[in-house]
Amino acid sequence: MITKSKYLLYSITLISLLSACKKEPVNVTNTNSDISITSFALSKADNSAFAPSDITVSIGHDTVKVELPANTDLSKLIPTIAIKATIISPASGLVQDFNNPVSYTLTGEDGNTKKYVVAVSIKGPKNMVFFGSTDKNFYAVDSRSGLQIWKFAGNGGFYYSNPAIANGIVYAGSTDNYMYAFDELTGTVKWKFATDGPIESSPLIANGIVYFGSDDYNFYAVDALTGVLKWKYTTGRTVSSVPALYNGTIYFASADNIIYALDAKTGAVKWRFVTNDMIVASSPYISNGVLFIGSRDGYLYALYAATGEVKWRYYSGISMEQNSPLAQNGVVYMSSWYVSGSNLGGSVYAFDEATGSLIWKSLPGLGFTRGPAVYGNTLYISADDGNFYSLKTTNGSINWSRQIYPNGAGGTVVDNTVFVGGGGTGKFYALNTSDGDIKWTFPVGSYGLDTSKPCVIGANGVVHY
């Protein structure tokens, strides 16, 4: 039996428990979820728009991130901003400096505010062509339009040494005896390294080192960021050959008739191979552990890269000292220059990579100062008859030719476009790969008789060299 006193105790306890479970009122903070930037666009100071593929916009909870193409002037951009709010400050449509993040404040109808930070950055550089000329200028040109991005006016020609790019730096040698390192976006000289002779050798950049030769008989290894010498090796004559790197070994040739294999870190000699005559601009190409290179003695050599022993050699009877081979899908492509001391010109060849047997020979007697470029099933090459040729890799037959008087300039193929100098016309060309039609030309003038093989950053951001 429950007594009155016990009932009263139970009632008090129940009331206490119910009171403990009762929720107190909660003050809800306004998150401004109804205030936002709904779209964001940028245009240039002249109100011209960026191509849709050139601008990327990402809108977050309180941030806007924008990426724009290389060489965009971030200090004078016009934002067009759509908002879910009453006011935005700074206002939409005003010229703004976006070199640093910009804070925007949005105000809603109820007076609540929300801040957004807009950060604009430059996309990785693309659509740029770099080349040098006998006019003593080094150029950076937009690969789509042919418009100049920047140029550097030097004291020597940049036409022998083909440029190369690594980590935002463009490297190019000049006949003023210097190897230059340019900022790829602005052309600012980061450093220059002096040799005692003109530089005709093209640089190779690997593992933070720039490798190249000079007419002072030396081959150099220089720090890629600082331009400080790491080591050098002295040969018997000029070094115009473009080096190649394979399994920790750096390979190059000299006009002293010798092909060198040096330790890439120290410059110590691993092996040397002596040909019967000089090697000028012919450069080693390594495929499947075999090194291919030409000489004035008329031979194309195939040497085992590890030892320098001969695998096979092919005698053309015409100097191959100027031309560099390349290999693709089991075929080695090569061209020859002239019979020494005569006007008898060379041809274009395709060899079986494994055996050295001749597959086909094309354009006989025209003479070739630079080796070919291969893109897919097509070979591209400048001949000394004033034409630039497109050949089928299967049999060497002509797809098309374009008379641009390239004066031996080498072509680079990127994004279905061939970029090549036409010094005899005073122009640099962008040609369709399919038919040779001219996309655009860039003037190098009457002093730009010769141009280097260009280095191109394609639309996918990959450097082609």
Q: Could you characterize the architecture of this molecule?
A:
This protein is mostly beta strands. Among the domains are: 87 residues, Immunoglobulin-like (Sandwich), CATH 2.60.40; 132 residues, YVTN repeat-like/Quinoprotein amine dehydrogenase (Methylamine Dehydrogenase, Chain H). The longest helix is centred in the N-terminal third of the chain and has 18 residues. The N terminus is likely disordered. The chain is elongated and about 90 Å long. The chain has one helix and 40 strands. A five-stranded mixed β-sheet has the order 2-3-7-6-5, with no helix packed on it. A five-stranded antiparallel β-sheet has the order 10-9-8-39-40, with no helix packed on it. β12 and β13 form a beta hairpin.
Structure described in brief:
By secondary structure, this protein is mainly beta. The protein has one helix and 40 strands. 4% of the residues lie in helices and 45% in strands.
Please give the structural blueprint.
Blueprint lengths: L3 H18 L14 E9 L11 E4 L3 E6 L8 E8 L2 E3 L12 E6 L5 E10 L5 E5 L4 E6 L5 E6 L10 E3 L2 E5 L4 E6 L5 E6 L9 E3 L2 E5 L4 E6 L5 E6 L9 E3 L2 E5 L4 E6 L5 E6 L10 E3 L2 E5 L4 E6 L5 E6 L10 E3 L2 E5 L12 E5 L5 E5 L10 E3 L2 E5 L4 E6 L5 E6 L8 E3 L2 E6 L4 E6 L5 E6 L11 E3 L5 E2 L1
Parallel strand pairs: 3-7
Antiparallel strand pairs: 1-4, 2-3, 5-6, 6-7, 8-9, 8-39, 9-10, 11-12, 12-13, 13-14, 15-16, 16-17, 17-18, 19-20, 20-21, 21-22, 23-24, 24-25, 25-26, 27-28, 28-29, 29-30, 31-32, 32-33, 33-34, 35-36, 36-37, 37-38, 39-40
